[in-house]
Amino acid sequence: MSAPLLEVRHLVKHFARKHGLWQPASIVKAVDDVSFAIEEGEMFGLVGESGSGKSTTGRCILRLIEPTSGEVLFRGENVLGFSRARMRQARRDLQIVFQDPYSSLNPRMRAGDIVEEPLVIHKLGTKTERRARVEELFELVGLDAAHLSRYPHEFSGGQRQRIGIARALALHPALVVADEPVSALDVSIQAQVVRLMLDLKERLRLTYLFIAHDLRLVENICNRVAVMYLGRIVEMGETRALFAEPRHPYTRALLSAVPVLDPDTPRQRVPLDPASFDPAAPLRQVATAHWAAV
Amino acid sequence: MTAPLLDVQQLTVLFEGARSTVTAVDNVSFQVAAGETLGLVGESGSGKSVTAFSILRLVPPPGRIAGGRVLFEGRDLLALPEREMRQIRGARISLIFQEPMTALNPVMRVGDQIAEALTVHGQATRAQAWARAVELLDAVHIPDARRRVRDYPHQLSGGMRQRVMIAIALACHPALVIADEPTTALDVTIQAQVLDLLRELRARYNLALLLITHDFGVIAEMADRVAVMYRGAVVEEGPVRQILRSPAHDYTRALLAAVPGMERR
């Protein structure tokens, strides 16, 4: 077996939380010893509820937030040990698509310039070559190249997310961290953007870390999934196995909370009893390609 | 057949700009019977929230109700004097908003906010209202209600705040509750708890519910009937099973096809 494209080892991120001038700060363990690996060509889902640490994990991998400790190996090299210059180079391979297509695009830049900016920063190509590449990217994500000189507010939410995707793809990345890329969009638009992401994955041989809270979506598009709860991965495995036979009490509670689209299917909510599991239990293998912290 | 609790007839709402007029709600009609839940489903801009606000005559300007009737308990709300309308708003018909943090007053104790709903409508003295606030927090399953009633909204989690909103909505024993995306801002496990709570309270108080949402999962769990809105108009209406299993309108079909996991079921 070849080495994974991305390997996260014992990733930890603590935030100090200040309560007042004279009170001691407390520590929030946003990411608490998280390890997983993503093979090339995978769509790896990282799911959890707000505060579970899934977005912080994604940002630590790209060093948009500096982790407290741990290792992030990309093609075997520890990204966290990179110098500033080396990190900038690595960012060509590691890109991110943000959740909110409204706040993640500079409202005072034209769409074409937004997509071109990574090429400018990395000093790639001449002005003409860059423009040609931007037009190519626009077409790749299903936007009209005639709209290059429009500003973000002139696009709809779904189109803006396409701009964000085009920007992420400008440098031919190997890994795209998609941080809730469709959760701000209407459901019919979500389906279009997801279809685009899957299509691009095949065409450009991309690997995704897909961060989401929508379990129905993850079940449909990710081949493997890790479930985060309070900063830790409590369960991880092949999507089908994990959804069919969740082992961790939190995963069971989470899956049972997802509304069922059939009014005649009896609802069987599994309440979460925090006393029913050991929050410090390490992941152990419970079946083929299936781990749980039980 | 008895008259429905709410009978919206040919409601039209316009937003008039300097250069153009947008028809946000276009000749919309639907009915809600006592104790029934109607799901009003659509995407952003479909006019579902404006429809709900129109029922309470709370359309923000430049929006304007241009036509139609809203019959509630036999009276046309659109023809009532404002003074009488105020006795219906929050009392006979109440509203639960999507965002509990912005809908609650941040500098008022939650107990006072519940009590206010009662005293404004002259349904209780201050002392009675406070006691009733504790009861209501208990009814929405907020643990330790006697102490929590003194909390400010920021001291409560998102799910707890939504429970407070529901307590306020229930304070005056409404016949109809309009819930505008009541669980959209919540995590899925908290959403499940709030939906369970709404289901329980609906049965206990025989509430009619107008549930506005974009989520067919929530519809499937809660609604008896569904009206699908698209570009200001109701394009399809019917019992929930019929709409989910054999949608007739192209837009409904497209919307259902877009829900992840729908195609396999």
Concise overview:
The complex is a heterodimer of chains A (294) and B (265). Chain A has helices at residues 54-61, 84-90, 111-121, 127-140, 157-169, 187-204, 215-221, 239-244, 249-257, and strands at 6-17, 26-38, 43-47, 69-74, 77-78, 94-97, 175-179, 207-212, 224-229, 232-238, 284-287, 290-292.
If you had to describe this structure to a student in words, what would you say it looks like?
The complex is a heterodimer of chains A (294) and B (265). Chain A is α/β, with parallel strands linked by helices. Helices cover 32% and strands 25% of the residues of chain A. Chain A contains 9 helices and 12 strands. In chain A, the strands form 2 sheets. Chain A has an 8-stranded mixed beta sheet, sandwiched between helices. A 4-stranded antiparallel beta sheet of chain A has the order 2-1-4-5. In chain A, α3 crosses α4. The longest helix of chain A is centred in the middle third of the chain and has 18 residues, at 187-204. Chain A starts with 5 loop residues before the first strand and ends with a strand. Chain B has 11 helices and 10 strands. Chain B has helices at residues 48-55, 82-88, 100-103, 110-120, 126-139, 145-148, 158-170, 188-205, 216-222, 240-245, 250-258; strands at 6-16, 21-32, 37-41, 63-72, 75-76, 93-96, 176-180, 208-213, 225-230, 233-239. In chain B, the strands form 2 sheets. Chain B has a 6-stranded mixed beta sheet, sandwiched between helices. In chain B, α4 (110-120) packs across α5 (126-139) and α7 (158-170) packs parallel to α8 (188-205). In chain B, 47% of the residues are buried. The A-B interface holds A 49-50, 186-191, 194, 213-217, 219-221, 253-254, 256-264, 267, 269, 272 and B 43-44, 187-192, 195-196, 214-218, 220-221, 240-241, 244, 254-255, 257-262, 265.
